[in-house]
Amino acid sequence: MKEKRKVELVVISDVHLGTFGCHAKELLHYLKSIDPQHLVLNGDIIDVWQFSKKYFPTAHMKVIRYLMKLIQKGTRVTYITGNHDEAFRRFVGFEMGGFELKNKLLLLFLIFQSLKISSMHFKTMKFLSLMLGHRICDLKASFFKNQHVFPRFRKC
Question: Are 156 and 137 in contact (CB under 8 A)?
């Protein structure tokens, strides 16, 4: 068996299980190729608006079963409600094992594609940090000497 790619975070959105246009087989193939630490199901995974007991193919059920298997193996799964998920909103706050149901989730990642940060990127980072109640207090000089040290953020 091919080794699974280890991934810290995977965000999947708008799958619409239970509809004709859903690509459940492709999604299942992708899920089986990765080993995520945290899986975020970003709304509209099951299409409640279009849901019908008459149409829910085996491939769609296999996706749900595989998600359950990921939870059993220790993957943290966060389901964020979407516009087609209003039926789930009354259960917001529900947690069981590695599964949680939320209305929103704040994810913060700084991605550096190279060690050269233009003044525009730096201004954008500064703006985002101010909007989130942080400020860039200290940017290590070693960062600019091609050592992989990322800026430190500290709550001010």
Answer: yes
